[in-house]
Specification:
Blueprint (H helix, E strand, L loop, with lengths): L34 H39 L5 E14 L5 E13 L6 E13 L2 E8 L2 E3 L4 E13 L4 H13 L1 E15 L6 E2 L2 E9 L14 E2 L1 E3 L1
Antiparallel strand pairs: 1-2, 1-10, 2-6, 3-4, 3-5, 3-7, 7-8, 7-9, 9-11
Length: 234
């Protein structure tokens, strides 16, 4: 056997094949970006953004309008006082819980505004005793001009069943001994403000906590009636 010297004289050995990266071509039928969906989401986003900007603009303009209105007209709440209250009968029957009453009230409506008039289109006056309404009256409607006031009177008279709890019955007995009764006068209003050409409508309330002495035989109870300022609630 002849000696091998390491040389090779056979056919040439082909070079190793290069590995190619495999990749997937996007198929025509599915996957990838849908131009229609993209356009739709873009349009929706633009619409929502536009609506949001419009709402913000409206709120800002309303705020400016309210500020300008306040600076020009400086609106103040209407004022209401009970000047006098005369009670000649306030008897609660122990047999049938019937309250016999005769209450006359003199009131003052005042408009403190310089540039705003007030239309009182409806005035409902309720007389209550310990949250129990015993009579309702309706006052004449009127218009109250700038810085004007008007005196109004009404009478609550008659009989009404009023059922009091034990605590309120004890209070009634004590008030009867003192000849001074805690009576509430509550007014429900329908009114319009005259602001230039505009006449906005409101349904506010007046609430008055009165301490009314009983007048018998020309004599008033332990203390006379004190003029009372009433609370206004929009």
């Amino acid at each position: 056997m002849s000696n091998l010297n390491g040389a090779y004289y056979g056919p040439s050995i082909p070079p190793p094949e290069k590995k190619t990266r495999a990749y997937n071509r996007p198929s025509r039928g599915g996957g990838g970006c849908n131009p229609f969906s993209w356009c739709f989401s873009c349009i929706c986003g633009c619409i929502f953004n536009l609506i949001f900007q419009i709402l913000i603009t409206i709120l800002v303009l309303l705020g400016i309008a309210v500020l300008v209105f306040w600076l020009i007209f400086r609106p103040n709440a209407p004022k209401f006082h009970v000047n006098e209250a005369t009670l000649t009968q306030f008897t609660l029957s122990t047999d049938n819980n019937t309250l016999y009453y005769n209450l006359a009230v003199n009131m003052t409506f005042r408009n403190p505004n310089k540039r705003i008039g007030i239309y009182y289109d409806r005035i409902e006056a309720n007389a209550e005793y310990h949250d129990k309404r015993f009579d309702t009256g309706y006052l004449d409607t009127f218009y109250l001009g700038h810085k004007k006031e008007r005196n109004v009177g009404t009478v609550f008279s008659g009989e009404q069943i009023v059922v009091l709890g034990n605590g309120d019955k004890s209070k009634y007995d004590q008030e009867s001994r003192d000849a001074v009764y805690n009576i509430d006068l509550k007014l429900k209003l329908k009114m319009r403000l005259k602001v230039g050409w505009a006449k906005p409508k409101f349904k506010p309330k007046f609430e008055c906590d009165l301490r009314v002495p009983l007048t018998t035989g020309g004599r008033v109870g332990s203390s006379g009636f004190q003029r009372t300022k009433c609370d206004f609630d929009w």
